[in-house]
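job 3f2a | input accepted
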Amino acid sequence: MKKITLTILIVFLFSNISKAQNSYNNLWKQVEKLELENLPKSALKIVETIYTDAEKTNNSQQLIKSLFYKSKFSLILEENAQLKIINNFKKQIASSNFPTKNILQNILANLYWQYFKENRYKFYNRTKTAKKIAAIDFRSWDLNTLFNEINSHYKASLKDTKELQKVSINNFKDILITNEISNKYQPTLFDFLANNALEFYQSSETSITRPSYKFIINDASFLDDYKTFSKLKITSKDTASLELNALKIYQQIIRFHLKNNNSNALANIDTKRIEFVNSRATITNKEAIYLSTLKKSIDYLKNKEASTLYSYKIAHFYINIGKLNLAIKTCNDAIEKFPDSFGAKNCTIIKNKILEKHLSIKAEAYIPINKNSRVLVTYNNIKQLYFSAYQLTEKQFAEFDEIYKTDEKLAYINTLETTKQWYSKLRNELDYKKHTTEIIIPKLKNGRHLIVASENKNLKNKIFGTATLQATNLVLIENNFNNRYNFQVVDRNSGAPIKNATIHLKNNLFKNNNFLFKKIKTDKLGFAKFYSDTYYKKVAISVKSKKDIAHFGSKYFYENRKNIKRKPIKTIRIKPFVFTDRSIYRPGQNIYFKAIVLQKQEENSEILKNEYVTVSLHDINRQKIKTLELQLNEFGSVSGKFTLPNNGLTGVFSIKIDKSKKHNSN
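job 3f2a | predicted structure (666 res):
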């Protein structure tokens, strides 16, 4: 499968042809040319020539490189090439010497590991066998057999540890992409092979074997500083444990770099070890031990740039627990002491992220005409805001709604005429965290409005937020019963029904869409009805009453069938419509609400007048918090308030209305 080849190239960071040794340069150029011409069979012949010559001259780099390409072309030219590739590597391992043998063992282990990840479901569905079935064909093995094989090859790749530690990674620069950073933190072939093995041993496949004596990281000393960790005796009966083997490899690498006094390589592998143990350990006070270990390690290396790798981890820790001030201080200390170090550069990245400015605003979709309302502002690292309001036509609103790119939005806003401007100073806690607040919006005339908030008065930078709203005293209530579409128009402020309001239903004529253009009037109770004789798409709904015009989006109308006989409904049901003064609240704030209640008996619907209803507030778990007994007025409306609790879970609360047991005595 082609994924195996890609994995080989990724894991071993295989470099491009131009880096080949000079004696083979021309041959590799021919291979590259034939591959681009889609002639893999011809390219493979040249690779075989290189392979044969490399085997004769014991050229480790060219031998490994040609094996890569043989595997690559086999996958293109042959069915079920995985088995042949694996057997080729086994054959080469048997005839190779140090260090080629170690590298090939490492590759073979990785090939098995990648095959498992691509076929995980097959292995987990297989039954464990007493002995290896079809020893040659790994594709038929059970899970434990495969993992034992991977484990054995990774361990074999790390044999002759002391000799591996003497081999510079630069010796393999023709088949590995190396750079200044990789050479600094993984300077030897031992580092390279051991880190590859750790990718397997740190995997989450911890349920391969579950003996009663399963190894668990439950000793705090595993999370201690590198000096303490290097001296630990790490043993367990559970020798197949991936976590156990990972800790042993970490200890090997740490001991090696402690001995050769390579602080950069030491800090690099030690920070990885600390992160691994912290993610897997089951110990008390883990966070405190983790932070203490990082700080202690900085003290050990305080005069060396390697200490900044620990600073970077500490800064991340503070970010995760919300102490951004401490994260900034940690980053500043590292940057000041060793500005050109790798750790300091990483600290600069997260420091800049903490200092980034963010701004968004949210307003109610509809607000009363010429009355103050509020906009919810979410921000961080911003001290002040300049607000502008722009009145939009329906055409301008539609155009702005289709703009997504920041630059295009700014350009469009600059073409609009400002109707209101105001300024607000924001509370700055100097904690770099996200904050929310509500800002008063000035009184606005009837119509659509765009609210823009920005850090600068003239929108000079891209830190700005927008929200659109409509100023109207009209509310449109919609439902679909009695085999028709029913509308009611009421006053947003009083809840009183509005008679003689015009409801305009209109869509555009386009392919596969029935055209609708209809105006209906409300009666003295604010009601209007519409029978849909067919299917209508994207019907825009607007309402006009005197000088007040409001738009209520678009909807789909489905055909109403008037002649369908239904069983009479004998029960009386009520249907409430609830409106609140805003959509977002903070704990402890008052919710001011209004409601209009209809009742339906059989096929008749009417306003429920002068009766008592039970209004209840429910939290996010649907638990009732408070109940009010209120009486409806002659228009079937009622109003009141609830106070939200100061503590408990935040989220979506709800208001429910039911008939009350209390009755009007009149």
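job 3f2a | DSSP finds 20 helices and 22 strands in the chain.
job 3f2a | closed
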